[in-house]
Design brief:
Pdz3 Domain, Rossmann fold
């Protein structure tokens, strides 16, 4: 998993979203973050919420009460784990039912894609119209189905949603040349003070990548530093843009809940840290944690990992269908050329190999990663279809069935 995500970072300028604790250090149990909590651990309880500051197990309703003075809540997710999105929905429901005005900040959209979000909440777009017109599969790489219930609830309850990310080109520019390379208008979407030198955040960033990862081991310190700088850009921009949306659009009782990858939230060293230095309101964090991973119990977890930890069931593999390949994308002349095949994925079982060029999936032409993601979203686990590829210049048609990897 770390190898796959790092390849995405290098190829497309993408950053850490969420990774399991498979690195050399246990990401869930590092002695970093809030000094008052960094020296102790807490147990993870299925369907329970732990207030790590108080060391108490509480209900979702009590969780909402304890956020009475909070203005910004970061929720760290694993993008392809449905149970994490269940927690996100439960969190905004608990806050809404407690009488809070709830705004929602979204990692998947940059700040300049606000119009489709407003049209969705105002009931002006169908579901398909929103997915297409908003560029869901242009700006995001994960199945719409993971987020459908959240978007439907927000629309039903009139909870305003805001894109809080930087445009991808701006993140790429920061990674390559630094923050000073940004134009004034873009720089205004970042906080005045940005901390790129936090030693604990650098330790956390490197902990997500295993020492056995061939790609990681070949990268220079300078290359890793540039990736870390881009990670900081995401952390800083998403918190800052969310806080600006809250101040502009929210009332005195409002809270904005930001849904972003857990890597941006862990130990309050990412988005929380960057925002707290620039914002007077109370900022808190919540991260769901599976009680089991690969069949083994998880825990204990370092108390400084998040302000609230919500226990969820464990899961092996993605919750919704994926083909199980990485494509060349913008780094090659053939965007749909396969550069990696997950050994237990549906594509591998169908016979796809590195170097193949994907031509059509179920009759739909595939010319990019976006095309593949959008088309895959039409299938459910167990569905079968034809996959047309080109191998060594020769056309081939494979029988593809979307099946989950066998649990280990």
């Amino acid at each position: 998993m770390a190898h796959e995500v790092l390849k995405k970072i290098v190829a497309a300028g993408w950053l850490l979203a969420s990774l399991p604790a498979t690195a050399a250090e246990n990401v869930l149990d590092l002695p970093i973050g809030d000094p008052a909590r960094a020296g102790r651990e807490v147990a993870v309880t299925l369907d329970g919420v732990v207030d790590t500051r108080a060391g108490e197990l509480i209900t979702p309703a009590e969780f909402a009460k304890r956020l009475a003075n909070t203005r910004v809540l970061f929720v760290g997710e694993e993008h392809t784990t449905p149970e994490f999105h269940d927690v996100e929905l439960a969190a905004i429901k608990a806050l809404h039912e407690a009488g809070r005005e709830v705004l929602i900040g979204l990692e998947m959209y940059p700040y300049d894609r606000q119009a489709p979000l407003d049209e969705w909440i105002d009931g002006k777009l169908t579901e398909k119209g929103f997915v297409d017109l908003s560029g869901w599969y242009v700006y995001w790489s994960h199945h719409w189905g993971y987020y459908r219930d959240i978007f439907q609830y927000a629309r039903e309850q009139g909870l305003r949603m805001y894109g809080v990310n930087l445009p991808r080109a701006a993140v790429d520019l920061v990674r390559a040349k630094g923050f000073d390379a940004l134009d004034p208008e873009t720089r205004a979407h970042l906080p005045p003070k940005i901390d790129v030198a936090n030693a604990e955040h650098r330790r956390l960033f490197r902990a997500y990548f295993s020492d056995e990862d061939a790609l990681h081991s070949q990268m220079s310190d300078a290359a890793l530093d540039s990736l870390h700088r881009a990670q900081v850009a995401w952390d800083a921009s998403m918190g800052w843009n969310a806080a600006q949306a809250l101040e502009k659009h929210g009332g005195k009782n409002a809270i904005i809940v930001i849904f972003i990858g857990a890597g941006h939230v862990a130990y309050n060293l990412g988005g929380v840290h960057q925002l707290e230095a620039n914002y007077d309101g109370e900022v808190r964090s919540l991260i769901p944690v599976p009680v089991r991973v690969a069949g083994k119990p998880v825990g204990p977890v370092r108390a400084s990992y998040a302000d609230f930890i919500w226990g969820v069931p464990g899961r092996d593999g993605p919750g919704l269908p994926v083909l199980g390949v990485s494509l060349a994308g913008r780094i090659g002349k053939e965007p749909s050329k396969v550069i990696q095949v997950d050994k237990d994925g549906s594509a591998a079982k169908a016979g796809v190999k590195v170097g193949d060029v994907i031509v059509r999936l179920g009759g739909t032409a595939i010319g990019s990663t976006t095309d593949l993601q959008r088309t895959t979203g039409n299938y459910a686990w167990g569905d079968g279809t034809k996959l047309e590829i080109r191998r060594d210049g020769q056309p081939m048609t494979l029988d593809l069935v979307f099946r989950r990897p066998t649990p280990k």
